[in-house]
Amino acid sequence: MIIDSTNQDLVHHLLIYECDPTAQFDDNNLPDDLCNEIYLQTAPCAYNGAIIWDVGGNDIVAFPEEAGYPIGGDFLIKYYMVQIHYNNPNQLSNRTDSSGIRFYIGKELRQYDLGYLTLGTTSTPRALAIPPKMERFIVDSYCPATATLGGERAEDEMCRHVMKYYPRMNNMYDCLMMNSPQIWNSMMNTSSSSFNDSKLMEWLLNLTWTLEQAVQWQEFYNIASRVLLYGASSNLQFKFMSDLPKYQDLKPIACTKDQTINQTTSSQTTTMNESISYTSRIRQNIMIILI
């Protein structure tokens, strides 16, 4: 990752998306603007997430000797989208940025193609509606075995961590969850046959929270029905789940900066903390990379 040294106070996180193989663009006039201005043009590039960096992550990531991220050649992805999120709470102006990413191409083709898999919830109020001032609030997310069925046999497959894995599956990028529209309609006491995220957001912002209500909210999340979505942009799969499998929670461990960097000597690989956190007043820019 190349983070402009003059803008380390503004660059919050950076994402690389793989555009759908069917995406078509004018190579002489690629989209490059604010996210909200070109979201229709870049729709084929808005789902299949790949490389992610955020504040606190490592600038250089080395892959294991037997795996590498495929790019160019006969690889099916032609276009990539760079999305940079800027956090500018002081509303500073007249700043330009040249942050981005640099690929180091190896001389020899590696045995496995490496892929990225995102687990967790969607970044919407349907999935994450957490009461204010909560010291601890649990949001469960579940990814069934059927979602990740594919690729090489178990004896040949080796997962590095939750974000990077190989052998790569070209039809799997995300496995995400959110509370079902039905359960939200029930909470809002509405019988509407359609669901509106804007109305949900308005309803949530108008709630008056007490400690008792916050405790009840955790109970609501524990039993809420979910919608699971997984796959790739060209073939998203949706599954309704009335409840989640029962399991025993792991003991929580306080996260410190030293724990975000993990050196593994077996493969001489450096991994980075690639969690995404969204803050207020984030400005987003997009550009397309052509290979």
TrEMBL record:
Coiled coil: none annotated. Pfam families: Cu2_monooxygen. SUPFAM superfamilies: PHM/PNGase F. Residues 2-92 form the Copper type II ascorbate-dependent monooxygenase N-terminal domain. One of its GO terms (molecular function) is copper ion binding. GO terms for biological process: dopamine catabolic process; norepinephrine biosynthetic process; octopamine biosynthetic process. One of its GO terms (cellular component) is secretory granule membrane. This is Copper type II ascorbate-dependent monooxygenase N-terminal domain-containing protein. The lineage of its organism: Eukaryota, Metazoa, Spiralia, Gnathifera, Rotifera.
